[in-house]
Specification:
The chain is mainly α and 474 residues long. The protein contains 18 helices and 2 strands. It has one domain. A two-stranded antiparallel sheet has the order 1-2.
Length: 474
């Protein structure tokens, strides 16, 4: 009796299934792999002779650093972006920024969802929460979350439409201003889309070597850039919520915490810059009151993740540099184009401190109780960020022992938080120091979300509880 031969799946199908299984079983490792592949691909593209203005192959450290900065939407650079790269190189950078701004947030989970139809509930929860790691291990989740499981498609549609619509509107607003500045229509179109993409993705690259110099005091241009940066920094889940309803009573707790904390930091940062730089002749000392207010708010918004600057950063007072360090470290909203530890993480820590001061056992906000695992993840994210910043700063100071600590710390935090502001250290740093900064950008971008996801995924249910003992704290 003859038996039928066992039919094997085609090689392509087996590869897809393998990738799907990898994404299902180890989503955090899958995310890191995707980021690494993207960095490697864009490093290769930028290493091609056609990518440079001179037609020569770019040094590896410059190609790698730029690729990491592009994919991580950081904005730090080791070269003059406007003059070093050719039109082909700028196209590669533009595409990379768009992929980084959107894909860095959703590519790992969404790609896994697309390439494999066998992804389990946990991975769908990751996609639905848009990098919210708390959905991985809690089983059934209250549908008062930022994004419900059944609304995954709506979130993805919001991501796509918000990027297209917002960037088109920003480009349309900037186009006439660039014409008035003397640019020909063709150049104005290209530059308006470039400014739009680099502001919404919070990257901070500029299409010309002058940067924001020609528009340093122009409210039309600066306010448009600032609004675009803020829209990219508040996060796609918040945009999704606002698109559905503008009534605060219908907002999720995540949306309320994000908007309130974001606004407080924006206004508080602006007030700090206004007061600290009021008499500084190298920055705002010679400005009129209106310009001081405008520049203070612009710098406060850019310090969160935007990366653009109308003020010479090294000329800032030491106290202002410290304020900028703190704003950069916090960054923007979760699941946004901004970096940092995120504003909701800061809000959770302050709510915990407030609850402890009042003697409350529960962590509460806006009539909702916040589970203790949220606080644990917030603490983990902050410790992870502080560890990256400390380790990178120490490594760079060992490599370049003659550099100023405040400048090194400034650029390290900017790299970790994917901000892009620089004290000038990055371009003058040695190759080993630039490699450290590149690694800082990479781990800063994927670290907070991926570590939190890994911690959440690794949580296991214990069938017993150990005896309790309280150490002395404080």
């Amino acid at each position: 009796m003859r038996t039928k031969p066992v039919q094997r799946e085609p090689l392509g199908a087996r590869i897809v299934d393998g990738i799907g299984d990898f994404a299902t079983l180890t989503p955090a490792r899958f995310a890191i792999t995707v980021f690494a592949i993207l960095v490697g691909t864009f490093t290769l593209l930028l290493s091609l002779p056609i990518s440079t203005a001179t037609g020569e192959r770019a040094p590896f450290v410059d190609a790698l650093f730029t690729a990491v900065s592009v994919i991580c939407v950081t904005g730090l650079t080791t070269v003059d972006m406007a003059s070093f790269w050719s039109p082909f190189g700028h196209v590669v950078i533009f595409v990379g920024v768009e992929v980084g701004g959107i894909g860095v947030l959703t590519l790992a989970s969404i790609l896994g969802l697309v390439i494999s139809r066998r992804l389990g509930l946990r991975q769908k929860l990751i996609a639905a929460g848009d990098a919210n790691p708390l959905r991985i291990h809690r089983g059934p989740v209250a549908e008062g979350q930022a994004v419900r499981l059944g609304e995954t498609g709506g979130l993805l549609l919001t991501v796509a439409t918000s990027v297209i619509v917002i960037e088109l509107i920003v480009a349309a607003v900037l186009f006439p201003r660039l014409l008035l500045a003397g640019e020909d229509p063709g150049t104005a179109v290209l530059h308006s889309f470039y400014w739009s993409a680099m502001s919404f993705t919070n990257t901070g690259f500029t299409p010309t070597s002058e940067g924001l110099g020609p528009f340093s005091g122009d409210p039309w241009f600066l306010i448009t850039i600032m609004v675009s940066v803020i829209l990219g920094a508040i996060g796609f889940p918040v945009i999704y919520t606002l698109r559905r309803s503008l009534h605060p009573r219908r907002w999720s707790l995540h949306t309320k915490l994000t908007l309130v904390t974001f606004a407080l930091l924006l206004v508080g940062g602006a007030l700090a810059y206004f007061l600290l730089e009021f008499f500084n002749p190298a920055t705002m000392g010679a400005m009129d009151p209106g310009q001081r207010v405008l520049q203070s708010f612009f710098l406060s918004a850019m310090a969160r993740s935007g990366g653009f600057s109308t003020i010479d950063i090294p000329s800032l007072d030491g106290s202002s540099l410290l304020v900028t360090d703190m704003l950069m470290f916090v960054g923007g909203g979760s699941a946004s184009t901004a970096g940092g530890i995120k504003v909701t993480t800061l809000a959770i820590l302050f709510l915990a401190a407030f609850a402890e001061a009042r003697g409350n056992d529960d962590l509460e906000a806006y009539g909702r109780r916040i589970p203790s695992d949220v606080l644990r993840l917030a603490v983990s994210v902050v410790l992870w960020g502080a560890t990256i910043v400390a380790a990178s700063s120490i490594a760079i100071l060992l490599i370049n022992d003659d550099e100023r600590l405040d400048y090194v710390l400034f650029d390290v935090i900017s790299a970790f938080a994917t901000c892009g502001l620089s004290s000038g250290f990055t371009q003058s740093a040695s190759d080993p120091a630039q490699y450290v900064l590149a690694a800082t950008m990479f781990f800063g971008r994927i670290g907070t979300v991926t570590l939190a996801a890994a911690l959440a995924a690794s949580t296991r249910r214990q069938l017993f509880r150990r005896p309790e003992e309280r150490p002395i704290v404080g």
